[in-house]
Amino acid sequence: MAIKHLLPAALAVAVLAVPAAAYAAPSPDVPRPTPSSSTVQDRNSATVAPEPTASDKRRPSARPTVPQSRPSENTRQAQVTQAEAKRLEDFWTPARMDQAKPVAEQAEREAKLPPEAREPRRQSMSPSHPFKGIKQVGTFFYQEDDQYRFCAGTVVPSPGKNIVATAAHCFDSSDRVTKLVFVPQHHEAEPRPHGVFPISVGKIYMDPAYITPGGDKAYTDLDFAFLQTSPRSDGKKVEEVVGAIPLALNAGFDHPDTQVIGYPYLPGMDGYKPKQNPLTCTTPLKEFTTASADGWKGGTFAEVNCDGYVSGTSGGPFLIKKDGGLALAGVTGGWKTGGHSPDTSYSSYFDNDVKRVFDAAVAGKQPPTRSILPGAETWKHAEEIASGYFALDGEDVPNDRMDMFVLWSDGELTVYRGASADRGHFDKEYKIKGPNAQWGDHAVEVTAGDFTGDNGSDLIVRWSDGELTLYPSVDEKGFHGEKQLQPPNATWKHAEAITAGRFSANKWQDDLVVRWSDGELSLYTDVSDKGLGKETKVVAPNKLWTHATEIGAGDYTGNDNWDLIVRWSDGELTNYQDFTGGAPWGENKLHGPDSTWTHALIVSGGDYSDNPHADDTIVRWSDGELTLYTDGNAQSIGRENRLVSP
Known about the structure:
This protein is mainly beta. GO terms for molecular function: serine-type endopeptidase activity.
C-alpha cells in the first residue's frame, strides 16, 4: 500500500463527527504544552531520512519528577483506643487464656497422627525444657467463633515500634478472628507480665497468595506474617516495653546453636500438658529440601529437631546468633505448616519476600503479590509495553490471560507471561532478544494485535525512519518472519501514538488507531500482512489531539467494539466507548486533569484478570512503578493493583 500522501483521493474519507467535548478548550488548571507545528502538508513534504538516528525517538531521555501521590491508596484502619485496649485486657483473663487451643489447622493435623508419632524420639532429637520465656516472644490470643485460640509471635524492630512476626497459617482466610491481642512472655505463673497489646481489624499482613483457598499447601514458602499492634491501655508500644529481635534475611543454614521457642499443647503427652508454658531448645539449623507430596508444594525450608514441639508451637521463632545477639531466621510453619511430628519442625526460608511483607506491614498496607517482575529502577527503562498472547506454554491457551511484551531502552525485548492474581499476575519471563542498537535506538512505537488471524499475537513496529513492520506470531521463542507494511518514509515518522484493537465488524484485533503529530486521528481497519487495510480520517488536524499523549485500547464497556483510552497531557483520562471511527461513539471522562496521571508514561490495555474481557490496563509511571488496573468500565479505569513499587 502506498504511503499516506500518495493514497488515491477516493480513499480519503471525510472527517466524521466528533463528540463536542473532544474539541473543548484545554483545562485551565494545568497548562498544556505547545503542540508541534507540523501539519499534514509538513508530513507530506518532509524528506525521507536515509538512515535513522537515535534522536528521532519520540520519548525524551529526561523523565518527569516522581509523582507526589497515586490515584488511590489503601485505607488504613484506626488503631485501638486506650479504652478499647482496657476492655480487651479485662476480657483476656488468665482463665480464658487457659482455655485457648492451638490454631485449628495444627490441631486437626496433630489429631490425625498415630500414637507412636506423638511420642518424641528423644535419643535423636535435641532436648527441650520448659522455661519462663524471653520478653520479645509471646502469644497471640483471639476468639474464633466460640473457641479461644493461640499462636506464638516475636517482636521485631520497626519505625512504629509495633510489629510482631508469626506464621501466616495462624491467621489464614478460614479464620474469623476477633478480640485479637499479643501477650509478650506469656506463661502459666505470670500470664501477662508485660501487659496486653491489641491488634485492630486489617492489621494482619501476609502475602495475598497465602490466603487464597489452599494457599497453605500451594505456597509453603510464604508461611509468615506480620501484625501491627496498638499500644496497651497505658499508651505504651510493645517494642518500647519489651524490645525487639531483628530479622535475619537470607542468612543461610549454617547456624549450629539455634534457639527454638514454642508453646506446645497436646493433652496426654507426658511432660507437655496444656499449660501453655514456653518450651526452649538449642539445636543446629538445617537445610531441608523436598519434592511436592500429598498436595503440599515442595521446596527448601529451614529445619530444626527438638523434642516435644507439638501443636501450639506454630509461629514460634527460630533464633540464630548474629552480631553478638539474637536474630529471627524463621517461624514454625512452611512445609506442612511446620511439620506433622513432635520432634521435627520447619520454617519457610526468610528471604526477600519476608522483607516485602514486613515493609508493607510497616506502611500499614497489604503487600503486593509476589512477582517475577524486576524492580522500579529497571522499569524506568521500559520504553514500550504491548499487551497480547505471546506465551504459548500456558496451561489453558484458549482462556489465557494476555502477556506483556516490553521494549527496554537498551533494545532488549522481554515477554512476561500473564498469570492469576495469586501468582503475582505474571509468573514467567522470556528474553526474546538481548540488548541491541536496532531496537534500542530506532523502535519508536510497538503495538500488538491479531493481524494474521491465528489467535496468537503479532507486533507492529514503527521505526524512527518511518518504516512500519509487521512481525507475525511472536511467541516466547522469538520472531517468525517479518513483513514490511511501509518502507522508510517521511509520513509515518509523524505517527506519534499507535494502538491496536477491534474497531470494525470482524472478530480480530486487527485495526490500528494512529495519532499524528498535527493532531489528526486515523483508523486503519482489517490490517494484515497484505497491507494497512482501509483508512478512515477520524479527526482532522487540530490542536487538541496533539495533547493525546498516550492511547490504549480495550473492551471496557462490554460491547462488540473496543474502546479507546486516552491519557491527555494534563493528566485527564478519557474512555471513548465503542470506537468505530464513525459516529456515534461515546465519551466517558474517567477523571479530570490530574497531576499524578501526567506521570503515566505508558498506558496499555489488555486482558490480565479473571474475566474474559480486555478491560484491564497496565500503566508504567515515571518513577518506575508498574500498576495494573483490573475490570475497568465506562466510569472507572478499574481496581488498582500495584505490581512494582517505586
